[in-house]
From TrEMBL:
Keywords: ATP-binding, Carbohydrate metabolism, Glycogen biosynthesis, Glycogen metabolism, Nucleotide-binding, Nucleotidyltransferase, Transferase. Signal peptide: none annotated. SUPFAM superfamilies: Nucleotide-diphospho-sugar transferases, Trimeric LpxA-like enzymes. The gene is glgC. Pfam families: Hexapep_GlmU (PF24894), NTP_transferase (PF00483). Involved in the biosynthesis of ADP-glucose, a building block required for the elongation reactions to produce glycogen. Catalyzes the reaction between ATP and alpha-D-glucose 1-phosphate (G1P) to produce pyrophosphate and ADP-Glc. The record marks Q60, W99 as: Could play a key role in the communication between the regulatory and the substrate sites. One of its GO terms (molecular function) is glucose-1-phosphate adenylyltransferase activity. Homotetramer. InterPro entries: ADP-Glc_PPase, ADP_Glu_pyroP_CS, GlgC_bac, GlmU/GlgC-like_hexapep, NTP_transferase_dom, Nucleotide-diphossugar_trans, Trimer_LpxA-like_sf. This is Glucose-1-phosphate adenylyltransferase.
């Protein structure tokens, strides 16, 4: 098997607890986004655009839908005889096996897969971020600095800094300090969870980390701090484009709303950097004569007979006569009944908001959520009132 200069290991086993009912039976990378995509489409598309043709996708939590969606990697051009996309779940070995204990342990358990391709460098990426990034530029910066590891970083608001791994760097972009989700951050330069490693350095670090029984086997908590302590050549790579960690209901909703701006920071119609996805093959949308749609994304197979304002409708959504959908995300196959109102909300796949029901409020700071397959009806609401 020919040697690869760089292969990618895509961590896609996230449980996504902060997305609540949206990830009850679904891995976070498989969550729908932007009217026609799933979150994992972005990192897979970045790989193929960046010339990375060997991608290991590490799955674990609720993998059924995600595995079915990935198939053999055809939509992203990763269905190849050499390299291509490989789904890598945890498995039982001759000496036993365990679930992936952390991000570092997940890569450790797949050292054998990586060594099949004998790479010079290994890119570690996540399947739950929304962004467009040329990883080849990251690799070039990594090689130019003769780095052991290069961490892609982005400047975040100070108020959000404690949610991320935070770096301090010198004038040469070398990392001098790293703290995972610090309570009082010294910097607002945040790790994007995108790491480029020289493979010999990473391999040794993974083996030592696995032998450390006190380790949590995590890149941010263990691998990076240990390399920094050992004075390895750690550098940062600044990314200036759009990047969003959609790990919460609010961030997922906001990232969808960002697409509706007059000048969106994330251009999905950029033909030079298309985001590839599985085509739903649905009939064209139908908009009734008296329906109203403004500043919205409405995908294939939708039937709109109501009012849709600044919202994202995935394929097969039904919006009945007199319904109002505003500042909301309606996922595939959901149905909004006659006279129903959905405002500042996310409605899950296949959910039903019955006739006359109200979900969400323009005055609420929180985003209302209807879980996948859930039914909201006036009868149920009346029963809840009676019980109170």
């Amino acid at each position: 098997m020919r040697r690869n200069e760089c292969i990618a290991m895509l961590l896609a086993g996230g449980e996504g607890r902060r997305l609540g009912v949206l990830t009850k039976d679904l891995a976070k990378p498989a969550v729908h986004f932007g009217g026609k995509y799933r979150i994992i489409d972005f990192t897979l598309s970045n790989c193929i655009h960046s010339g990375i043709e060997t991608v290991g996708v590490l799955t674990q939590y609720q993998p059924l839908v995600l595995n079915q969606y990935l198939g053999i990697g055809s939509p992203w051009g990763l269905d190849r005889r050499e390299g291509g996309m490989h789904v890598l779940p945890p498995y039982v070995r001759s000496k036993g096996g365990t679930w992936y204990k952390g991000t570092a342990n997940a890569i450790y358990q797949n050292i054998g897969f990586i060594e099949r391709y004998d790479p010079e460098h290994v890119l570690i990426i996540s399947g739950d971020h929304i962004y467009k990034m040329n990883y080849d530029l990251l690799l070039e910066a990594h090689k130019e600095k003769r780095a052991d590891a290069t961490i892609a970083v982005i400047t975040v608001p100070w108020a959000d800094a404690s949610r991320f791994g935070i770096l301090s760097v010198d004038e040469d972009s070398r990392v001098v300090e790293f703290a995972e989700k610090p309570k009082k951050p010294n910097s607002n330069l945040a790790s994007m969870g995108v790491y480029m490693f020289s493979w010999p350095v990473l391999r040794e670090a993974l083996i030592r980390d696995e032998a450390d029984k006190s380790s949590s086997n995590d890149f941010g908590k263990d691998i990076i701090p240990t390399l920094l302590k050992e004075q390895a050549r750690l550098f940062s790579y600044r990314f200036n484009g759009y990047w969003k960690d959609v790990g919460t209901i609010e961030s997922l909703w906001q990232a969808n709303m960002d697409l509706l701006d007059d000048e969106p920071a994330l251009h999905l119609d950029d033909r030079s950097w298309r985001i590839f996805s599985v085509n739903p093959n649905r009939p064209a949308q139908y908009v009734a004569p008296h329906a109203k749609i403004s500043s919205s994304i409405v995908n294939e197979g939708c039937l709109v007979d109501g009012e849709v304002n600044r919202s994202v409708l995935f394929q097969g959504v039904m919006a009945a006569e007199g319904s109002i959908i505003e500042d909301s995300v309606i996922m595939p196959g959901a149905a909004i009944g006659r006279g129903a109102r959905v405002i500042r909300a996310i409605v899950g796949e296949g959910a039903v908001v019955g006739d006359g029901c109200v979900v969400g409020s323009i005055d609420s700071e929180e985003i209302a959520v209807v879980g996948s397959g859930e039914t909201i009806s006036l009868k149920a609401e009346m029963q809840e009132v009676e019980q109170v």
